[in-house]
Fold each of these.
Amino acid sequence: RKTTGSNPVQGVKKYINMRPYKKIKMEPISIKQAMDKGKGKVQIRGWIYRERGSSKLKFVVLRDSTDIIQCVIKKDKVGDKLFKIADKLQIEASITLTGTIKEDKRAPTGYEVETDSFEVIGMSDKFPISKDQSREFLDDHRHLWLRSRKMTAMLKIRSTVFAAIHDYFKQQGYYEYHSPIFQAVQCEGGSTLFKVDYFKQKNVFLSQSWQLYAEPAIFSLEKIYTIAPSFRAEKSKTSRHLTEYWHAEMEEAWATFDDIITHGEELLKHIIKKVLKERKSELEILGRDPKTLEPTLKKKFPKMTYTEALKLLDKKCGMKVKWGKDLRTIEEDKLSELYDLPIIITHYPKQVKAFYMKEAPDDKKTVHGVDFIAPEHYGEIIGGSERESDLEALKKRLEEMGEKPDEYEFYLDTRKYGSIPHGGFGMGVERIIAWICKLDSIKDSIPFP
Ligand code: 4AD
Ligand code: MG
């Protein structure tokens, strides 16, 4: 895309080389620190977020990672030469600016800096992104769209979510453990595998899940977790699927099915608690009312079996689902409308779940598998299970699903040498972020989808 005709950067370079600004010796501070200071001399730096002006006066809104602030540049004050440069400044030019900060109710963030001097660090060509641009345009300019207030707020929340996951597991005594990304077996069904050309070797795929190479390690560390990329060749474009997403997974020796479910609920509560504590203003920038997340923190999650969920769909939503069919997006969405917090669904029919899930001892048509469904149509945020620990039962499940047990030899060894009850789950981190930030699409919860 062509952005400019004449080159404004070149045009201003000669002025910059004249260095008409007064070099003021001061340590730059962040915009937030400057506003916390509230008065007196400050030096700040960042990028031009907005600009407007007349022949004597120029208003520049400066942006850094912490906030935005209005700065006024007066011709009288900075002199003709510097004012000429100010006049040429375009959106996204980077500058260092020195001046006096004071409260000003009319300014966008309640403070204004009256400029003594400024220095251009990098001029900007005409920035391609302006107001009201289409989704496609913003996707094409993703590397520049990351600078928007919306993406900045999301990225800060994203960072907090990752920190919360690490906190939770570290506090609970888990070790961080890493599985390979190149894997030789499938974990979650063949249809979404990304096959890799790995030195002509057959059957090498990108990881769909850390799980199968994590289970061997619980015999060493007992309690482990990770946050790592997972890959799914999802062909359909939906608002909740990515081909590359970040997957938070845990696996625990000796854990019961209930233990796994409790960890899922506690982890989600911990994430929401941290975000509400540290990221209220970012939530507001994104238009998410923090109050709508509070039920997740305060109330116990509703829990039901798959069979009970079908009854609820029939009674409350007028939707009939044949027992044995997996819940589709539309049914998950209807169920999520009945609550203002995540719901827990257990005991799915065996045929719709992965081979490694343990048969429910009291209802052999079902498995000890669990899904957590987010409120507000954000879909399945956690999938987990108690694992089948019996070698023969596991082989039988693999065969039923058309897999060759021979290819899973390393995995089956975990059931051969001191098998124990255990379980774990995986959480789609971008689904959590999309829900917390109230995003229209999961694509906006990751820098480069
Ligand atoms: O339910 P899934 O497929 O379960 C597993 O992979 C298990 N091996 C996890 C485990 O027990 N360790 O995936 C887990 C979660 C889903 O609940 C969903 O939140 C997320 O991963 N997920 C996706 N997120 C974004 N884009 C996709 N294409 C996703 N596919 C799954
Ligand atoms: Mg699942």
Amino acid sequence: MASLKHLLGIDGLNPVSATNLLDLAESYALLNRSGKTQRDSLRGRTLINLFFEDSTRTRTSFELAGRRLGADVVNMSVSTSSVTKGETLLDTAATLNAMNCDLLVVRHKSSGAPALLAQKVGASVINAGDGTHEHPTQALLDALTIRRHKGRISGLTVAICGDIAHSRVARSNILLLTMMGNFVRLVGPPTLVPGSIGVNGVEIFHDMEEGLKGADLVMMLRLQKERMSAGLVPSSREFFTYYGLDRKKLAFAKPDALVMHPGPMNRGVEIDSEVADDAARSLIKEQVEMGVAVRMAVLDTCARSNT
Ligand code: NCD
């Protein structure tokens, strides 16, 4: 596999390197399912999880992935670090550098923070979500989940719905899905799906019925209220009426369309529990499971490029 020192965004991948990561992740998914979870490819390596923003599944799955590959894993969250004492991002980086960290997983509210760190540390930097910019491992785990269920990750119609404007998950998915030759549709109110988001080949819809027609996958996104500067949505109840995914709206998509959500979900706002918990239609739990496998593949690949 080609060398990949950092994973700062889908932007830095091409169809071959993305497919290699998915193939390696698939083999880890099978090993994880068979219970043979312990490997030692990262034995003696140090992984630091540096999270400046809250996270449940991303931080936990990077931690599990690192441990399953035999790395020493240290979790740092802002509330317990000297960042609250006024230390700058780059001072923190220098401190981590002095500890000879091999892999640095970063989540930060500012777009571009992981890229800045990558210039300042010797470690491989992996972007675990930066502002509204990118969340590359989420897009990779989504692609792996799709490929496992549809048998391919090209030629599919994927409707990404809801708060596109504030979503780094949407950005990374748009980049990866279009790069692999899928048809991406963005569906939501004009305040949350600005025309300027348009990328080559991506279609924009403001109506769920039109946007979901013929879709193979329906990917729902959380309303990222913490990133909204003004009230872009009149009320949660109204949002659900027009854009919340329930059985009735899911019926606009293909009969075998599958439902995804990166989590955390706001039940009754962007998605109805009846759809989210329907084992025959919802891939949401498997997305979490594939998160560990994808992060193992990314850590492994970056560590091998950084010896
Ligand atoms: C997402 C994130 O943090 O970008 N969550 C995740 O990583 N699974 C999406 C969100 O916060 O809504």
Amino acid sequence: MSESFYVTTPIYYVNDVPHIGHAYTTIAADVAARYHRLCGHQTHFLTGTDEHGQKVMRAAEERGLDPRAWCDRIVPDWVALWKRLGISNDDFIRTTDERHETRAQAFWQELFERGDVYLGRYEGPYCVACEDFYKAKDLVDGACPIHGRPVETLSEENYFFRLSKYSDWLLGDYYARTPAPVAPAARLNEVASAVRLGLEDISFSRTSFSWGIPLPWDSKHVMYVWLEALLNYVTAIDYPDGEAFRTLWPGVNLIGKDILRQHAITWPAMCHAAGIEPPALVFAHGWLLVGGEKMSKCNLTGIHPDELVAVFGVDAVRYYFMRDIAFGQDGSFSWESLLARYNSELANGLGNLASRVLAMIASSFDGRVPDPGGHAGEAERGLEETAARAVDAYSDAMGRFAVHEALEAVDSVVRRANGYLVETSPWKLKDPPERGRLGAVLWSAAETLRIVALHLAPFMPEACARLWESLGVPEPLGAQRLPDAARWGGLAPGAATRRGAPLFPRVEP
Ligand code: MSP
């Protein structure tokens, strides 16, 4: 059987509509899923919504709705946005789904019976925007360090999860595994240091409100939203004994660094406590910053993805976020950098390459892919080598979630191909004796476009499908498999090419 790849996004709070910070994670997960499908791996991609807890409950109250009615109203907006952004998730989980509620209860019942849950009392600061407990020493001027908003003080009888019991296992076993289960490396160091400083047991139930999943053994309590939400990664694939769970778990949890602790400390410990495998990889990317701060609705810096798509189109927006920010690090969003990248790499780079090559094939070869015959020389071999090197760099980078490096590799091929056209100047090869040479140049440039379309497809699925069709390749893009399809020489002479509308029309400032 083929390798399996199970990738998830965080499930998003539905207190409001999405902004591009949420879209950033979801696009990255989509790129990973599409890439693994392209490699022929058995791929499963999950996203969804986190609907319980006080944050969502208050959002509903502000609108005069009960929480369930509010969620039912807003969730379709999220689903529709993911569709517009070309997100190819195989499943969508809502934590109000019955499948999640019953399996989350089964999970915690198991931990209760194993003695990992006990009744205690919690007192301390709580940030509803994070849905997280804080220590007084971690607050900044009495406010949440992430949201900068005042915290509340909780004082309740709660059940606790014996997280502290798992410190040794996390440090001695989980974090020591190869390949590392938490990435990038700086994030692994960060959680390992936090565990070394000492873990405390964690409050995992609430009694002061009821918008949550009741504990099966004590229905006065609902589950603390985080320790319920994390379970979505397994409840969606039929934990504990479904076929999907057996074949797909452990998976890759892609997250933003704001929720690292929950995913790289609490979640693996919960899995281990329940006797299931912890996640194979927790990969935490950085923040999208606006004006130097984490973009967020709370800080009024949230930008809706549709605002960008309206100007640049879906593919370009996906490309920009994956290209402009080193995946794993923080990066600043700006309209100026989006415009600059779009015009230089997509409109003038790839778009211009495609339209020039297809126009010359149309005018000189009646739209049929020319036969390179025996006319390829050193320049063509140079282009072929550049493409081969980029293909290797791309697959190495994709294996490490270094999507920005993968795109740099592809862009280097586009730049070389445009340079190659300037050097070989096919528009000057007009005389009949030069026809063989002209065919070789245009075939090589078109073959480069084929390889570029293949590798950019996970990032820009629509534009690449159009480019692929315009090259006249008979088998659809979706039927291609790496690495075989990436071999130089795949473009069949004689195929009918097609010139369409420009892939990336220039956008004026
Ligand atoms: N519901 C929890 C996650 C539970 S997962 C079991 C949650 N939801 S959230 O709606 O606040 O989304 C958080 C995630 O959205 C971040 O981890 C990150 O993936 C993404 N982002 C939100 N704002 C972001 C930025 N400004 N920059 C990058 N990603 C951001 O936390």
Amino acid sequence: MSRPTLIAPSLLSADFARLGEEAQAMQAAGADWLHFDVMDGHFVPNLTLGPMAVKALRSWVQIPLDVHLMMAPVDPFVAEFAAAGADRLTFHPEAGPHPHRTAQLIRSHGMRVGIALNPGTPIAVAEELLDGVDLILAMTVNPGFGGQAFIEQMVNKIGRLRRLIDVSGHPIHLQVDGGINPQTAALATAAGADVLVAGTACFSGGAQAYAANIDRLRAGSPAPSA
Ligand code: DX5
Ligand code: ZN
């Protein structure tokens, strides 16, 4: 249980008119990665940003850009995300008929590969892809929106994924995303997660609160009452 916990603030909760400054503030506050949510309006019922925004952000920070694709299809856009400067590309296996091919394509463009499992997606899907992925994302909400409540039944799934990864012997990150706050972060890390994505919990309180927000997530402790 001594693996370090990485914090990946989700820019979905940032001020979109000041995305570069927000990214810089999060880096200065101690973020390990920046999580960037791409939503296409039909794979999930919301619409956000694409490769042009990744490209615009790239020069503002040095930490890895962790791009979470909630879109279908994925393959035609992989090269564009790589050229834009994405370091990591995570996709949902339901996005196309050939997730193994998509994983290979992402890796062939020099990016780290992530596979995202919706709350209703069985872990067996990831089991078949373990050789070709660097990260498994266990969604702890149904994807599409920030600010949703953590689905507690997912703690058991996180534990099963941790055992799957450990047995595989591959150095695969186990990331969680959705409803992560200091309390749920503690549940997720105890179950085996090592990368925490958080939007609301990282960006609340404005830039002066970002470092403390990150520290509380890392420690898995509740915010002091005001
Ligand atoms: C939701 C996105 C998340 C979102 C999390 O579909 O994938 O990354 O930003 O937001 P919070 O942390 O507010 O639940
Ligand atoms: Zn996400």
